[in-house]
Amino acid sequence: MGSTIIGCGKSLPALEVENDELQALVDTNDEWIATRTGIRSRHIALTESNADLGEAAARRALGWEPSGWTQRAIEADEIDLLICATVTSDVVVPSAAGMLKRRLGLGNAIAFDVNAACSGFVYGMTVAETMMAASAAGTVGAVGRNPVRRALVVGVERLTRLTNWFDRNTCVLFGDGAGAVVLEWDEERAGIIGSYLVNEDDVTNALTCPSAFDAPQPFDRSGVSLAEPIPVDRAQDRIDEELATLESVQAGEPRQVLRMDGPRVFKFATAAMTEAVHRVLDRSNLTLDDVKCIVPHQANERIIKYAAKKLNRPLDFFQVSIGDTGNSSAASVPMALADAYASGRIKQGDKVILTAFGGGFTSGAVLFEA
Ligand code: ACO
Question: Are residues 225 and 330 in the same domain?
Answer without folding.
Answer: no
